[in-house]
Amino acid sequence: EHESDDDSYEVLDLTQYARRHHWWNRVFGRNSGPIVEKYSVATQIVMGGVTGWCAGFLFQKVGKLAATAVGGGFLLLQIASHSGYVQVDWKRVEKDVNKAKKQLKKRANKAAPEINTLIEESTEFIKQNIVVSSGFVGGFLLGLAS
């Protein structure tokens, strides 16, 4: 017999979970407040630095991989074009790129209010958690350099 869809997963009620686990309310509750109020300055700097270093290190590795893939693909396209295997209609490419630019500008103008809201929320978070944020930036830069 096949199990019904209701039997294949468990529903987790977060309100019940929060009542049973007091740490959940301290971290994610309405009155949780900024991180500044919960941990010492040294702990905040370490937390921000470690997460920043991890993010910077991953960003560096992914960036190198992406740059290698794009550059290698372009190089192969050029070699194939010069060898006569591929013929590229550069005027059509330019036309399509210009069309894509126009579409991106239209979408960017429509998305401006959401972006401004996101920037304001991010700025407020950084202001409330300046120690963690500065530790993150320092760690991120170290991660990029390593």
From TrEMBL:
<keyword id="KW-1000">Mitochondrion outer membrane</keyword>
<protein>
    <submittedName>
        <fullName>FUND1 protein</fullName>
    </submittedName>
</protein>
<keyword id="KW-0496">Mitochondrion</keyword>
<dbReference type="InterPro" id="IPR007014">
    <property type="entry name" value="FUN14"/>
</dbReference>
<dbReference type="Pfam" id="PF04930">
    <property type="entry name" value="FUN14"/>
</dbReference>
<keyword id="KW-1133">Transmembrane helix</keyword>
<dbReference type="GO" id="GO:0000422">
    <property type="term" value="P:autophagy of mitochondrion"/>
</dbReference>
<keyword id="KW-0472">Membrane</keyword>
<keyword id="KW-0072">Autophagy</keyword>
<keyword id="KW-0812">Transmembrane</keyword>
<comment type="similarity">
    <text>Belongs to the FUN14 family.</text>
</comment>
<dbReference type="GO" id="GO:0005741">
    <property type="term" value="C:mitochondrial outer membrane"/>
</dbReference>
